[in-house]
Amino acid sequence: MRVAIAGAGAVGRSIAAELIDGRHQVMLIEREADQFEPHAVEQADWVLGDACEVSILEESGIEQCDVVIAATGDDKANLVVSLLAKTEFAVRRVVARVNNPANEWLFTDAWGVDVAVSTPRMLAAMVEEAVSVGDLVRLMTFRQSNANLVELTLPAETPLAGKPVSDLTIPRDAALVTILRGDRVIVPQPEDPLEPGDELLFVATADVEPEIRTALGY
Fold first, then answer.
1. pTM for the complete prediction?
2. Which PROSITE patterns match (predicted)?
3. In a 10 Å sphere around its CB, with 0-12 CB exposed, 13-18 middle and 19+ buried, how is residue 33 labelled?
4. How many CA atoms are closer than 13 Å to the CA of 87, on its beta-carbon side?
């Protein structure tokens, strides 16, 4: 994929490095001259300019990008970048960083945001996930589809131990997408057995989350 990242601070650079390691093409757009350091991520294309300006986005060729990530430290800028990328340049996928949780309600498809990533919410979810074995934890919200990425870790005494995935009665608007088992990432097949300590990741709408708990015996 070709990915444009607005904001070349620590967050933007880290994202760029990870994507480049995954063999994606990356472009970093940075408006502050003191943050414009192409040597920091040499494999990326760098653009000096304000990503909130249509002319800069046009000159950078952002319409050729598959994904735009608004990763600045300013929520207002991230909303403007998201809106322009989606409405003016028809970028297929827009991901936006939410710096202040109080602004999270704004990061919807009305502002061109497909996926909003709130660092405080993610950190809180990770802490909750670490101490809440047997409880359903919401990790991320996909704004455009009104679905969530949720996780549940099976406790040691789970009645599902040894039972195949096909035995789970998963509600219609939910899908089991991954099982994390130790250092393994398992794409679940109907015959795969479940084990205590498995981390089950579902994509589901909020209204069926109670049904997922019921299906897993909670």
1. 0.64
2. RCK_C (PS51202), RCK_N (PS51201)
3. exposed
4. 13
What CA–CA distance (Å, rounded) separates 137 from 126?
9
Distance CA 6, CA 22 (A): 19
pLDDT in tens, 106-140: 999 999 999 888 876 665 655 555 544 456 777 77
Collapsing DSSP to helix, strand or coil, 28 comes out as strand
**Residue type at 93?**
R
Nearest Cα neighbor of 218 from 205, 193, 203, 200 is: 200
Domains of the chain with CATH codes: 2-117 (3.40.50.720), 132-216 (3.30.70.1450)
What are 67's two structure tokens?
A: 């994904």
> Edge-to-edge strands of the sheet including 2-6?
45-48, 25-30, 2-6, 67-70, 93-98, 115-118, 136-142, 147-153, 199-205, 174-181, 184-186
What is the tens place of the pLDDT at every residue in 167-183? Answer: 998 998 999 999 998 88
